[in-house]
Amino acid sequence: MKEKLKKCKTCDQEIAKKAAVCPHCGAKNKKPFFKRWWFWLPVCLILIAIILCVIFGINQDSINSHLLQNENGSAISETTDVTETQEETETTTIEPSETVEVTETEETVPAEAEEPVSTETVTEESVPEETIPEETVLEETVPTETEAEPSEQPATLGENNALSSARLHLSKGILSYGALAELLEQEKFTEEEIAFALRNCGVDWNENAVKAVRTALSFRPFSLVGLQRYLIAEGYTPEQAEYGAEHCCADWKLQAEKAAVLYLDILAFSEHSLKEQLEYDGFTSEEAMHAVSNCGADWQEQAVKAAALYLENKPLSRQGLLDQLLSDGFTEEQAAFGVRKSGY
């Protein structure tokens, strides 16, 4: 009876070997993994595979050894054949005259056989050398003829008229690419005719932008950024506008001074508000400060002028007028001077 008992792995009490559960602790009585069928199945398959590999390896070795024996036997048979032929030639007796004839025939035969081989090689090499250059010459000449055809096509009547109209507009003044295209569109030319006219009118649009900048600067002052905005509004591309503004050789500090004088002639400005206005127009802070310092303005007189303009538009008290001048950037001294000169 004790042989059919075993100890429980959990509580170490004796239980039956075939019991599914320990009656003492309730733990499952599992069989060891090496006693289950799924453990031995892959083991058997691995053993079968090893045996098959050994068997096939032995067969392969026997086949290779058999092939080597056959090769060695054929080599031995060839050597024996060669030696037998040599012995036969040695044993046979031939007269001297016959040997001379044999040797002559043996020497002349390969000479006759080599001649056609050399002619064949010459013909094979000569054929591609003659044909390849002719094919390449033909391939190179064809595209040159086809490419030359579109350039030989004459311009249409509409294209010639669009070109004449474009040249007429350009003779009257400086125009941008976009402005000239817009004028031709207004004259009802097609897109193809306009493109032909713009392409063949002979205008350097970058140089045209420089001319437009110099013309604009002769009427009023501009900053570098202000000129670029002006040219883009006139129909120049951003690249053309940048080129024209940078190659006009303008003194931007001088332009800022002219702009400051022009503003002071129209309206009343404090030093602070004039600097802000110039920076808004595109001048740099350095250029604006240079203009404010060198425009020759009397800021107290500007305060008087500003007070008079405010009182013309709206009645203000003394304190209201003073606050308005201070908000415009005038100092307290300048604002008080302007209020006092206005009658308060």
Structural notes for this entry:
- The protein contains 14 helices and 2 strands.
- The chain has helices at 37-91, 96-151, 157-172, 177-186, 191-200, 205-217, 224-233, 238-246, 252-266, 271-280, 285-294, 299-313, 318-327, 332-341, and strands spanning 5-7, 14-16.
- Helix 4 packs across helix 5 (191-200) and helix 7 crosses helix 8.
- The longest helix is centred in the middle third of the chain and has 56 residues, at 96-151.
- The chain is elongated and about 130 Å long.
- It starts with a strand and ends with a helix.
Read across the widest sheet, the strand sequence of neighbours is: 1-2
β-strand number:
2
Q: Output mean pLDDT.
A: 78
Q: What form results from the Cα inertia axes?
A: elongated
Distance between the termini: 133 Å
SSE run: EEHHHHHHHHHHHHHH
Low-confidence stretches: 90-150
Rg from C-alpha positions?
A: 56 Å
Major sheet: size, sense and barrel closure?
2 strands, antiparallel
Structural class: mainly alpha
Specify the number of helices: 14
Fill in the keyword field for this structure.
single chain; mainly alpha; two-stranded antiparallel sheet; 2% strand; 14 helices; 2 strands; 344 residues
